[in-house]
# Entry
Amino acid sequence: MSKNIYTADIITKSIQNADVFIKCLDKYSYIEDILKDKHFKARYVEEKFDYLDLKMFGTKLHTLTLPMVCFCDIPLNKLSDHIEWYGDYGMSTGFQTL
# Structure
């Protein structure tokens, strides 16, 4: 019989984070697609990780391209820099939804 070592039934409000996931987009049509298709589409993002000194088949890996769906949890009053980089449109969802 397995035992749960820790369970959290209470979600504490954070002063630092928005307590929601926010998805910023640069086109309104992306929001329409998400709502119509009922899912978030992954986009391929190149991640650099030279600092890990990883090798595959004897060759050092510098980057890896991965499918990702990105969200942020930045407080709404601090979103302006993020919006400038990722787009003026956005949608949010509670932590439990994802």
Notes: The longest strand covers residues 20-25. The CA atoms of residues 23 and 70 lie 7 Å apart. The two ends are 29 Å apart (CA to CA).
